[in-house]
Amino acid sequence: MKLILCLICLTWFFTAFNKQIKKHASIFYIITVLISALTIFVPHDMLPAPVVMFINKILVRGVFQGAIFIIVMYVAVLPSKSQLRIKLSKVRGEMAIIAALFTLIHNISYGKRYFMLLFTDISALKPYEAAAAVLSICMIILLVPLTVTSFYTVRKKMSGKNWKKLQRLSYIFYALLYLHIVLIFSRGLFTKKLTYLVDIYIYTLIFGIYAALRVIKYIKKKANAKVLKGEADIKNFNAPAYIKNKTVLSTAVFSALMLGVCIYSTYIYGSAGINSDVRTKNEKTAEDSDAGKAKAQNKVSENTGSDQKDMPDQEDIQSTAKGFKDGEYEGSAIGYNGKLIVSVVVEGGAIKDIKIVKHVDDEEYFYDARDKVIQSILEKQSTDVDSVSGATTSADAIIKAVKRALGEIK
């Protein structure tokens, strides 16, 4: 839904201000770079909450940049006489440059973790995370020449033929962009969040329709070329029928591919729900089993209570020895995007379990920080653990929240 809103707003912006953007392109580039720099380097606690939300949900995640790239790629397949195409065509190169400059935000924000791990410790990445990181690097490599040659001063020094050949790399870029998006949203499907499934449907529809329209345009161009060059027998060559047959075939192929991606995404989403239910059932069974054991132990204690009247309580001994008092406690801290709440269970003087009750941080960072930090605390039975490289803010927030739950800090 954020993508649709960005597409509407950006389409209006570029059509309404196409003359100003064309005339003062360098000013818009400078503004784009400044926004990117401020987004990356200015501490978020110095910014208003709505600005932080826009940065984290729209800019850092690449929704804003992706929307501009989508507009750029659709300009070429819009009806040639439409006013929308005429206005957007005037600033197509400028839009591509602005989108490329804004990608600095996304690449630096995520690259400082995923690119670093890709080259230093690839085993720390999930397979789809490693694949997404590789695709990102490939896109950056493609984006550099595409962006440089979009500048008017560079473009006018190239022959039209060579420039067009180079710009064909954009088709590969768009394909990699779509695959990258699907891989990233796959994590969301495993967390059973419906928004990610809807997003995959929307992106699949947008990129699928574009691909079909691009192929259809190529078919029409090829048919017209056959007639103009005399390669086809004009008497026997029926251009409309040729175009229609090829169009139906290409549309059917892309429709099947789109349907396949949607079915696969729905299956992953559904499977995640089943696995979640199984885990919940197993956890409940384990809890019931523990409760039964505790009940049996209490019964034994009641029968032998007279022998233990003068003995100190075992839980008090463990609590004193390890420094934790039995019970379930909650603590909170401020994460990357907002408040984070944890629940800490202490049994027998030891930290038994840590659960995340609430968080609003980005999943791509948060889940890795959660898994590593909680595991470290449980293993060491201490909150004196290391943070997680690339997800420092989320990791530090979890550690701080656990400390507050245990009363180590206020």
From TrEMBL:
Keywords, in A-Z order: Membrane, Transmembrane, Transmembrane helix
One Gene Ontology molecular-function label: FMN binding
Residue ranges with Basic and acidic residues bias: 283-293
Region (Disordered): 283-317
GO cellular component, one term: membrane
Pfam family, one: FMN_bind
Domain named FMN-binding: residues: 335-409
Transmembrane spans: 58-79, 91-110, 130-151, 171-190, 196-216, 248-269
InterPro entries tied to this protein: FMN-bd (IPR007329)
Name listed for the protein in its UniProt record: FMN-binding domain-containing protein
Lineage start: Bacteria, Bacillati, Bacillota, Clostridia, Lachnospirales
